[in-house]
Amino acid sequence: MLGKKYIKLNGIAIPNPINDSIQYENVETVNKSEAGTDLVNVSLLGKRSWNLTANCSSYWKKKYEAFGKLTQMVMKLEGETIPVRVRLNSADMVENSANVPNTDGLYVVSLTIYEFGE
């Protein structure tokens, strides 16, 4: 859980999520040798992805949509600089929020931030 840890994407501090989780996976390939034994090549150990859910205005929804079109971003989290990709999974308008002043509605967004290797 991120708690009160702030995330910056390309230098932009994003609003804290209401829910988050982190997943770890290993990126590996398995090949067979001529003798029939498995040869495992681990190219990235403990690759991370962050699943976030946030309440936001239409301004931030548009920002997340723009982030999702970029092939690479830099995420800063607790002093660590991480190359990532961002994918907006869903953006649902909150009921009766279309008339909120200074916005085109309020949204609940779900996004995934994927770490990728160097």
Tell me briefly what this model is.
The mean pLDDT is 87.
Explain the overall architecture.
The chain has one helix at 58-69, and strands at residues 7-9, 12-13, 19-32, 38-57, 73-77, 80-93, 106-115. It is mainly β. The chain has one domain (7-115). The chain has a seven-stranded antiparallel β-sheet with strand order 2-1-5-6-7-4-3. A hairpin with a 2-residue loop joins strand 1 (7-9) and strand 2 (12-13). The longest helix is centred in the middle third of the chain and has 12 residues, at 58-69. It is elongated and about 70 Å long. The two termini are 25 Å apart.
Write the layout of secondary structure elements.
Elements: E1 7-9, E2 12-13, E3 19-32, E4 38-57, H1 58-69, E5 73-77, E6 80-93, E7 106-115
Antiparallel strand pairs: 1-2, 1-5, 3-4, 4-7, 5-6, 6-7
Order of helices and strands: EEEEHEEE
Give the biggest sheet: 7 strands, antiparallel
Q: Roughly what is the average pLDDT, rounded to an integer? A: 87
The CA-CA distance between the termini, in Å, is 25 Å
Main sheet: strand order: 2-1-5-6-7-4-3
**From the alpha-carbon coordinates, what is the Rg to the nearest angstrom?**
18 Å
Give the low-confidence spans: none
Secondary-structure content class: mainly beta
Query: How much beta, percentage-wise?
Result: over 45%
Counted up, domains total 1
How many strand elements?
7
Shape: elongated
Query: Helical segment tally?
Result: 1
Helical proportion? 10-25%
